[in-house]
Specification:
Layout lengths: L2 E8 L6 E8 L8 H14 L22 E2 L2 E2 L21 E5 L8 E3 L2 E2 L2 H9 L20 H11 L6 H5 L6 H12 L8 H14 L10 H5 L7 H18 L2
Parallel strand pairs: 1-5
Antiparallel strand pairs: 1-2, 3-4, 3-5, 6-7
Helix pairs in contact: 2-6, 3-5, 5-6, 5-8, 6-8
């Protein structure tokens, strides 16, 4: 495959950025998208040029580091998969591929395609921890939890915190991410003690970080590589309203 890449290059957070064009030849269709970038970077280094900076780690769709905005879609054209699971066979020979970083005020650019997503960490930290005194290790079946509740909690916990939901949203909202963090605790009995305080703190921190408001278009759920359901946003809104109602009546 012969392809043309237009890649966002930016030396630092305060430096101006622009799309730079690169030509790649004889790329195997079985090459992963990140391996294609490895090939590009190897060529750039041989020429004495600066390689393209991009985030990556596990390359197995687990860590959520490989955040790239590809031809107008977070993680590219393959639904339900992170960038690292995308292969060049998803594109056509001779195609021009535009690659950009996540675009959000809450995710400032570090360099090229790398963005600072520690805002997500601060939202999680704002949620605190579960302070239930469990004593010694309980038997696995001591706290019965209905299967459907278990599955909903595990589905919410599947979020890999990649930020695709923010990148897909026209308002750069982090509602789907925050809702997944709220839901995985709110659904289980162990998370009930701080339930109301948790959602209030996490939503407040989300606003502090500068994420936009949710207009419930559903783009976040469509582009999420972990297929996190938009139902979690409904649940978080219900939790939040309950928390505010309770605090106003006490």
């Amino acid at each position: 495959m012969n392809i043309t890449l237009k890649v966002w290059r930016q030396k630092g957070p305060n430096a101006p950025g622009k799309l730079v064009e690169y030509k790649l030849k004889d790329i195997s269709p079985d090459t992963s998208f990140l391996e294609m970038f490895d090939i590009l970077n190897a060529d750039l280094v041989k020429k004495g040029e600066s390689p393209v900076a991009f985030d990556h780690d596990c390359r197995e769709g687990i860590c959520g580091q490989c955040s790239m905005y590809i031809n107008g879609r977070p993680h590219g054209p393959q639904t339900g998969a992170a960038t690292c699971l995308l292969h060049m066979r998803s594109f056509t020979d001779g195609e021009t591929i535009v690659v950009e970083p996540w675009r959000s005020r809450a995710f400032p650019i570090i360099k090229d395609l790398m963005t600072d997503r520690t805002a997500f960490d601060r939202i999680v930290q704002a949620g605190g921890y579960i302070s239930v005194n469990t004593g010694s290790a309980p038997d696995a079946n001591e706290i019965p939890i209905p299967r459907d509740v278990q599955e909903k909690a595990m589905d919410a916990a599947a979020c890999i915190a990649c930020g695709a939901c923010v990148a897909a949203c026209k308002n750069a909202s982090a509602m789907l991410f925050t809702a997944s963090q709220v839901s995985k605790f709110a659904l289980l009995p162990q998370g009930q003690a701080e339930r109301q305080e948790r959602v209030a703190r996490m939503v407040a921190q989300m606003d502090v970080e500068g994420f936009g408001a949710c207009s419930f278009t559903g783009a976040c759920a469509v582009e999420c590589p972990a297929s996190i359901s938009i139902d979690n946003i409904v649940r978080m809104n219900r939790e939040y309203l309950s928390s505010k109602a309770t605090s106003e009546n006490t």
